[in-house]
Amino acid sequence: MNAALEQFRTTNAEISMEQVRARPLLGTIVEISAAGYSPESVQVAIARAFEVVEKVHRLMSYQHPDSEVSCLNRWAHEKPVKVSAHTWHVLKTANAISESSDGLFDITIAPTLTRLGFLPKQQGMPKSNEKGNWRHITLLPDNQVHFARKLRIDLSGIAKGYAVDLAIQALKDFGIMSARINAGGDMRLFGEKSQTIHVRMPDAPAQTVPLLNLTCGSVATSAGYFASREHKGEWVTPLVNPLTRKACRVGQSVTVLAEECMIADALTKIVHIDPSRSATTLDRFNARALIMYTDPDNGNYRIFDSSK
């Protein structure tokens, strides 16, 4: 009986169908690859996963005037604002990472990103300088949020990873056997097949190199090669040091591995800003960082591994 059951499972695994779909969401292209026992079941699961990503996009978009992030930026300094459980969870996680990193991760850097040209100026928003920080955000009971002063928060450095986590769970709930979701460098996968993760070379982004093999888990990569812009004679990235409000320069690629993509997404910013101070936070969240940079002496790329 057991042998027959095992043969049945093997036969069905061999006829499993993999499908790939992609949509523009979260300010990038979200690609979902999933395999199941029938094309129909895979299509339904992928559609549900995209619905979850779209929900996070609607709730946490900085640009959309009716998102919960916009509502917080508009009203939370005057009175507590109630948000969804999803936004609350992301804010709570952001707070924990900010505390662990002594403020190297901070969602209140939106005014700086606007000044540098990475975020648009918004009409009807209270004026906010660059002196506020994560400590001015208070999470109250019943999913309510209050700002101690005028702030503008931006969740793009963590919400994208959260959307990937939710979408992966949606696929699992539909019985998907294996899947991979990639949202602009924020990736999570599961299944029995190992996959090679490639990253772009920081000074030659048209070229990719194999970084590691991964079967299950999350990996997020941040670099400035496509998002950089010139500001006052320097090429800068949207990776901003919250303590100095200065943007990181182009020059390295940071990849973080963690169980949750939300965690990996956020921690790439900390490692970028100050690798020497990121070890404690990486350990707390059981994460590993890989920093790729070009050796100035010979032009070859090198990789620093925080686990070694």
Give a topology summary.
Elements: H1 2-14, E1 17-25, E2 28-36, H2 39-60, H3 68-75, E3 81-82, H4 85-100, H5 110-115, E4 137-140, E5 144-147, H6 159-173, E6 178-183, E7 186-190, E8 195-201, E9 204-214, E10 217-223, E11 229-231, E12 234-241, E13 246-249, E14 252-258, H7 261-273, H8 279-284, E15 288-294, E16 301-305
Antiparallel strand pairs: 1-2, 2-6, 3-5, 4-5, 6-7, 7-10, 8-9, 10-14, 11-12, 12-13, 14-15, 15-16
Describe this entry's structure for a reader:
32% of the residues lie in helices and 32% in strands. The model is unreliable at 1-15 (pLDDT under 50). The longest helix is centred in the first third of the chain and has 22 residues, at 39-60. It is α+β, with helices and mostly antiparallel strands and 308 residues long. The protein contains 8 helices and 16 strands. It is globular, with a radius of gyration of 20 Å. It starts with a helix and ends with a strand. Among the domains are: 63-147, T-fold (Orthogonal Bundle), CATH 1.10.3980; 194-307, Roll (T-fold), CATH 3.10.520. Belongs to the ApbE family. This is FAD:protein FMN transferase. Mg(2+) binds at residues 157, 265. Keywords: FAD, Flavoprotein, Lipoprotein, Magnesium, Metal-binding, Transferase.
